[in-house]
Amino acid sequence: QVQLVESGGGLVQPGGSLRLSCVASGTGFFINTVDTMGWYRQGPGKQRDMVATITRGGSTSYSDSVKGRATISRDSAKNTVYLQIDSLKPEDTAVYYCRAVAYQYVYWGQGTQVTVSS
Q: Which own/partner pairs from 22-28 qualify as long-range (CB within 8 Å, at least 24 positions apart)?
């Protein structure tokens, strides 16, 4: 019954900013207690790659492609994980997926489209 629902995607001009949200639901599922929450993306003709992750303890990691431009954060009270990306580039265009790892299970959201274009 675990569900991850992303939102916040859309069309944005290069240099703009976007904040994506991932709301987690499910009995006994709390984002601050799972092993890892993360954001992945898959651009046209590309593999799905990690963008950012945050561990149970709050440690964050970022891919080189977004380091310095992206911030992953969470609001435990809202069971929500966020991804803020600034200075967006056309190469950021992709479907962004929320991922959770708990008890050796991997859960994925349905994805939200981000298009960076002028």
A: 22/80, 22/81, 22/82, 22/83, 22/98, 22/109, 23/78, 23/79, 23/80, 24/79, 24/80, 24/81, 24/98, 24/100, 25/1, 25/79, 26/1, 26/2, 27/1
CA distance 4 to 107: 8
Hey, is 58 helix, strand or coil? coil
pLDDT in tens, 38-94: 999 999 999 999 999 999 999 999 999 999 999 999 999 999 999 999 999 999 999
